[in-house]
Amino acid sequence: MLKINDRILMDIAKSYESYIRGRQYYENGRVSNVKFNKECTRFKGIVRGNENYEVSAVFDGMGNLLSSSCTCPAYAKYSGDCKHIIAFLLKIKEFESMGAFGERIDKNSAKNIIEYYRDKDEEEKISVNIECEYEFSMKPYQKVGESSYLNLKIGEDRLYVVKNIKGFLRSLETGEDINFGKNFKFSPQIHKFKDEDMGIINFLRLLYENYEINYSEYGFKKENIFRNQKVLLTPIALKSFFSLMNGKKFNADIMGRKYENITIMEDDLLFNMKIKGRNSDLIMGVDSGEDTFPLTSDGEYFFHGNQIYRISKEQREKVVPLYNEIMHSKNGILRIPEQYKEDFISEVLPNIKNKVNLSIDKKVEDAIYSPEFKCDIYFDRQDEVILGKVSFIYEDIIINPFSSRMDVSVNKERILLRDREKEKYIFKLLEEGDFRVIDGGIYIDKEEKIFDFIYEVIPKLQECCNIYYSESFKGLSIKNSSYFSGGIKLNKKLNMLEFNFEIDGIDSKELEQVFKSIKEKKKYFRLKDGSFLPLDNKELMDVRNIAEYFGTDKRKFKNGTMTIHRFNSICLNNFLKEKGLNFVKEDDNFKKLVQDINEPNDIEYEIPAELKGILRDYQKFGFKWLKTLSKYGFGGILADDMGLGKTLQIITFLLSEKREKGPMPSLIIAPTSLVYNWEEEVRKFTSDLKVLIIVGNKPGRKELIKSLGDYDMVITSYPLIRRDIDLYQKFDFRCCILDEAQHIKNYRSLNANSVKKIKANNYFALTGTPMENSLIELWSIFDFLMPGYLLSNRKFLEKYEKPIVKGQDERTLDDLNNRIKPFILRRLKKDVLKELPDKIEQRIVVDMTKEQKKIYLAYLKSIRGEIEKEIKDKGFNKSQIKILAGLTRLRQICCHPAIFIENYTGESGKLNSLEEILKDAIDGGRRILLFSQFTTMLGIIKTMLEKNNISYMYLDGSVIPQERGNLVREFNEGVGKVFLISLKAGGTGLNLIGADMVIHFDPWWNPAVEEQATDRAYRIGQKNTVQVIKLVTKGTIEEKIFKLQERKKEIIDKVIVEGETLISKMSQDEISYLFES
């Protein structure tokens, strides 16, 4: 009898903690592969820590323990025995208490190796990758070598600080769990480190092993890794050494034998294994020669034939466990008792084939047979419980995997090779269905689980099994899209779209509950007949999106029908086609509407005779586009490039409407400067449109408004419509048309609020720049054209502007594009006017004078300090006025310090350069438009022109509309060499083709505004090449504005078309960039 008891174990451990931890290892089943000699005096086995450690124990004939050893790194440091030895001795005691060592060990060995291969896939399935984060820190004012530290964080969804790294590394060795709080427990058995993290983890484990050897936790004698002429290599250190020696030759003393010129190679070993029959059992052995053995406990490195092999992970996992089991078996022979033969052949052989050189005795090989595998599953329903019976069928052998007995007797002379891979896959699917086992069958009893099983699992089972259902089970069907039907039609009486949707067998009231369940993010809807309607069904989700996105009625579907505003016709049609909702049938009226809007050129409209020969082809298309939108009650933006004749297209449209439908006034609202331009353009092209200009004082306007019913076109200005809107609200107009519609870009402005009160059959907007700074400006114009089409302003900001501008969301941008595309017509000069001459653009950088530069730098320093303080005290948003004032001052200094500094007698570098440019240009016969934002600067330029006897004309906001027209006419007729224009007053609406050079004296934030100004000269009728010059002051805010423009141009305004740019409002970082010196 072996003398093993608690007192002896405590004595040899010399530490209560080592004893307790050893007992924990034993109770946790960490001891395996226990082997012994015939006399039961020599024992060896494996104890699983973070690695497998080999443990041995020797007893005398009286049962006294003579010696013990362990390959763990801690064994060398203790004067007592380690926890692994304690666990091993307790296991030996357990075996002894069972009576017969031999039979029990053989059976357990076979059982252990079968369970290893059976559970391996399961372990891989439940393993979870763990995330790691490292932080290196260096403490100041400490000795070299005592200042550098490493911190570690680990976790799954979130990271947790490893507060006790030594305890964490110990858990990797022992396999014990560590709690990091209520939401995360680290388990070495479940959590796996990524390959890129393993190098760091092994590095830390190496440090820990060295610490364990050099320092004693329990007050024992300290050891050291340095042993005179030798250095101790712990398991991790040994692997590191082998890795460093890869490719080198070295000598070795292994297991008492000396070897020379050993090399390390990364390759698998070809193990020779053989299986034979012995009585009714099987035996398995390894023939690998005397000099083959593992050098590391996990089998990563093997010694064989004067070589060290680093074998692959696959061979380590699939072959080494079996190799170890065989080598630790009695006499190196693994006995597989009769009761385990089938499991061994089915579980172990498929894993090692093609990985070893396997020889099978012919009698055994003949006994192994592998018939085709089939699986039958029968499902029944009892109330709200699903019952199942599963049968694995191998020809005449029927196996109930949830019962311990087979349904037919088995021929013991045969060894069935079962298809474990397919069996495991079926088990996996049943686990997904959350089935439980009862009386040799399976069941589920929760509605949500039943739905998951029928919807997700049964289709997979049908691919690999024969499925049979009882009649009661068939009631649990799934409703799919084949049960759906729908239609869309244009109700001309209501002038709305009607979209109906039905699910076979579901009434309209139940349909409302279906969509309510979708909104509540439920997985399915249980119908009255007991069947299930999956709510993640693509078609159903698309219909729900139609209801959410296009529906106008709060209840969305009423009696299975939903009304949708006709504005959404094109977008809805595109949605149906894109999503493939083929069950939705479209009526002829709807199809005709879609066809007409998409292809207006195919419709025959009569162009007024007097204009037929004047209109260009693209203008004829624009006329048809306006007519088609008008026909269906839609609005639109005519966004043609400057100078392409938007006014002429509107005149043609209104003349056609009058002749087709009879007289009815249309209202045109334009900037003050363009009111009379409209009148002149109408008179130029037709005498059949009666025009009323409403200007003058309040009483006079009131009288004019009373008579507007007698006119075809009523023209007024934005400032006057604000004052007279109450009078206009009494009338119904055929059309309301906004010229330069960017005047309502601010949806909160009086302009926007006023024009949106006007009643008309159709609404149109004319503008070359539907958007200058933000997408909400486009929304404001659409809110005038077709209220509600682009949602409310709040919803538009959330759904479109924020994702597109801040998130660069291409999908949302495409969505917005699809919605607005039918209602914006945009043509560029370069695309439609091939005969238009070239436009040459040039940026000229000029330097400041010495005195000017001193003033600029002084102001920059002062303003920067003031603004930084302002932002710090009030915040960025409340500092906008201060910032704008500072930027304006710097821009004015770039132009000329005399703009705001009285008695400044110095020069301006930019003005000097301008003087030279103008002289050269005039000498070359050029006529020039010169734009500036600062009227004071224009005054300074006037003085310079007069000094040089250069004739000029001048236009700013103080010039009355009638006089503006005279100035334009005179300049185009050849009066004056230079036309000085305030950018704000003359940047739009003027036709100045008499010029062939445009100079922008100072840059503006938005390049689109500069392009509008340039287009005063570069437009229809221009015969000469137009040269555009932009003057930029070197090393100043002007250069930064130009660079900011370039940077912003990366956000191309695809919302309109290529060629427009979207400049969002400046961020705090961009403001800081402008004020950098």
Automatic annotation (TrEMBL):
Residues 913-1067 form the Helicase C-terminal domain. The keyword Mitochondrion does not apply. The keyword Zinc-finger applies. InterPro entries: Helicase_ATP-bd, Helicase_C-like, Helicase_SWF/SNF/SWI_bac, P-loop_NTPase, SNF2-like_sf, SNF2/RAD54-like_C, SNF2_N, Znf_SWIM. Keywords: ATP-binding, Helicase, Hydrolase, Metal-binding, Nucleotide-binding, Zinc, Zinc-finger. Residues 627-788 form the Helicase ATP-binding domain. GO terms for molecular function: ATP binding; helicase activity; hydrolase activity; zinc ion binding. Residues 53-93 form the SWIM-type domain. It holds the Pfam family Helicase_C. This is Helicase.
